[in-house]
Design goal:
By secondary structure, the chain is mostly helical. The chain contains 8 helices and no strands. It has helices at residues 9-17, 21-43, 46-65, 75-93, 119-138, 141-152, 157-164, 168-188. The radius of gyration is 18 Å and the shape is elongated.
């Protein structure tokens, strides 16, 4: 029996569609951090993130079971598009747009904990990551969204353009202006990382 972790997304999807539930579990484990993090950075609420995250995978399962998934070898961008659209739908439902505010919830980098550094290193890194997150929260929505999708979800600019329904040049421009604004914020607030 093959180890499911070594299979491609397409192979896992085909196995799942043939009745292997472990194949779907493998795909969920493979991408859960990226999808969850992207949702969280857009909605800034842990419980809402968990709800949307579950809804994303329910929609993925429904699409797969319904035979409506077109296998183009791009599972993650497809799943990210579903997550992004569900976040947009949420904000439309409550008739408000995402607010740019400082988030005091769980630090994004707790999800990406690769090793156990000392307490002093953890504290310094935590403060730097908190400063970066607060500065990203101050950016205009369109710039913040592109930075989150590029740096936290590892999407290409083409995938970001498709997801946000804009041109690649617009996505690149938003990234550029977002980085310029981050530098300005660092200078204005005299923030050292």
């Amino acid at each position: 029996m093959k180890c499911l972790n070594n299979l491609t997304d397409q192979q896992l999807i085909h196995l799942y569609m043939d009745g292997d539930a472990d194949a779907l579990a493998t795909i969920v484990m493979r991408y859960k951090d990226k999808i969850y993090t992207s949702i969280y950075l857009l909605v800034k609420d842990k419980y809402l993130t968990e709800d949307i995250f579950q809804d994303v995978f329910i929609r993925i399962i429904d699409t797969l079971k319904g035979g409506r998934y077109t296998d183009e070898g791009k599972f993650l961008p497809w799943a990210m598009r579903i997550a992004h659209n569900m976040c947009v739908d949420h904000f439309r439902k409550v008739k408000r747009s995402p607010t740019i505010k400082t988030s005091d919830d769980r630090d994004i980098f707790e999800v990406l904990n690769f090793s156990e550094p000392g307490a002093d290193h953890k504290m310094m890194n935590g403060q730097s990551h908190d400063r970066i997150r607060k500065m990203v929260d101050m950016l205009p929505d369109d710039q913040r969204e592109v930075i989150i999708l590029r740096h936290y979800a590892d999407l290409s600019f083409k995938e970001i353009a498709d997801l946000t329904k804009c041109s690649i040049n617009t996505a690149l421009g938003r990234m550029r202006y977002g980085l310029i604004n981050l530098r300005k914020l660092m200078t204005e607030k005299q923030i050292a990382l």
